[in-house]
Design goal:
single chain, binds nicotinamide-adenine-dinucleotide, alpha/beta, 7-stranded mixed β-sheet, two-stranded antiparallel sheet
Length: 349
């Protein structure tokens, strides 16, 4: 079993092992004792994995209740958050009890937010079942729901007490959802881990445990330096500012991972145009995304993208920090005046 420890405001372990789902009762009991648990999952994941989780909990004498949401981003909303809080209260979940988030980033973000505010904060355990959740959203303590005005606009920082990752669960993902997660894996490589990109060249599924471990080590080290996202953690936005604009331009028909892949290629071209990144790196960046089944071409104009990117929630007054590769494995923030953003994006198309 691979174990990564995150030393943020609170320390916790991430355990990664194929088949771990059947032992989760043991690991939860080992870390938290015998709290009452509330499993939060979505209908798809619940159908596939709830039984295994439930029987492991029961075999360890752990009692639980279960709250199921419909799958998909639309469920990460205020109505489901309030329903979950009412469910916790009606089931007499106390401060000593805990929530289990069994699913992808949607379940993790919603359940984590509920855990962060119910009774002013109770413990929660992440059991990520998508590649994106395994390498990114289950680690680091960002929780959120979407508002009508935009994605992830309400949330709290609330670190999990334990992350239990069973890579076997990724076998039931569609190719599209799996490759979306690959975009986040590649992101870590381009930010600061060239060797991770070598692992991807062989066979992602073959090396999956090592790849997840490397990604969460990368995320943990960044979170430890800047848990509350005031500096270094912004590196994780590589490809995201423009990627987010692409998602919105497409009316969310281009998925997050695909948008991040295109956004990262645009960021690389911008960096090259500014003389910051060796021109040779562009082909390598494009080829890595292509080999993971991800797109690299953008069909929106610089004006359309800049209009949305300037409303990004990470805008700082009249400027915005784009994360740019100064070479593969070496990304840094690059401050841009919002009135120059359109012409800069033009250079990246
Ligand atoms: N908190 C953070 O730090 C952070 C970081 C990145 C992304 N996010 C958030 O994560 C969300 C996206 O997460 P996601 O891509 O995991 O989406 P998701 O949770 O919607 O899962 C994608 C789909 O896969 C299905 N699914 C999940 N696991 C499965 C499995 N093992 N087998 C078959 N189907 C399965 C789900 O039912 C869903 O339909 C977004 O809301 C994003 O804002 C949060």
């Amino acid at each position: 079993m691979k174990t990564v420890t995150v030393n943020a405001s609170k320390s916790y372990n991430i355990l990664i092992e194929k088949g771990l789902l059947s032992d989760i009762g043991y690991h939860i009991k080992n870390t938290l004792g015998t709290p009452k648990l509330c499993i939060v999952t979505d209908d798809t994941v619940g159908e596939l994995y709830s039984k295994a989780v439930e029987s492991s909990l029961l075999s360890c004498g752990l009692s639980f209740v279960k709250f199921v949401i419909p799958h998909g981003e639309a469920s990460k909303n205020a109505t489901n958050l309030i329903s979950l809080l009412e469910f916790l209260a009606n089931n007499r979940i106390t401060r000593g009890d805990a929530i289990i988030a069994l699913g992808g980033g949607v379940v993790g973000d919603l359940a984590g937010f509920a855990a962060g505010i119910y009774l002013r904060g109770i413990k929660f355990i992440q059991i990520p079942t998508t590649l994106l959740a395994a390498v990114d959203s289950s680690v680091g303590g960002k929780t959120a729901i979407d508002l009508d005005a935009g994605k992830n606009l309400a949330g709290v920082f609330h670190q999990p007490s334990l992350v239990l990752c069973d890579p076997n669960t990724l076998n039931t993902l569609s190719d599209e959802i799996f490759s979306d997660g690959c975009a986040e894996v590649i992101k870590y490589g381009i930010i600061n881990d060239r060797e991770l990109l070598e692992l991807l060249k062989v066979d992602i599924k073959e090396n999956i445990e090592a790849i997840i471990e490397r990604c969460v080590i990368n995320k943990a080290r960044i979170v430890e330096l800047d848990e509350y996202d005031n500096g270094t953690r912004q590196l994780l936005n590589l490809g995201h500012t423009i990627g987010h604009a692409i998602e919105l331009c497409s009316g969310l028909t281009v998925s997050h991972g695909r948008a991040v892949a295109i956004g990262t290629v645009i960021a690389t071209k911008i960096a090259i145009s500014q003389g910051l990144c060796p021109a040779d790196d562009l082909d390598e960046v494009i080829n890595i995304f292509k080999s993971a089944g991800l797109p690299t071409e953008c069909s929106y104009s610089a004006r359309e993208l800049a209009e949305i990117a300037t409303t990004d929630k990470k805008r700082l007054g009249d400027s915005i920090n784009l994360i740019l590769p100064y070479g593969i494995g070496n990304c840094k923030p690059y401050r841009v005046d919002v009135c120059e953003l359109e012409s800069l994006i033009e250079k990246g198309l």
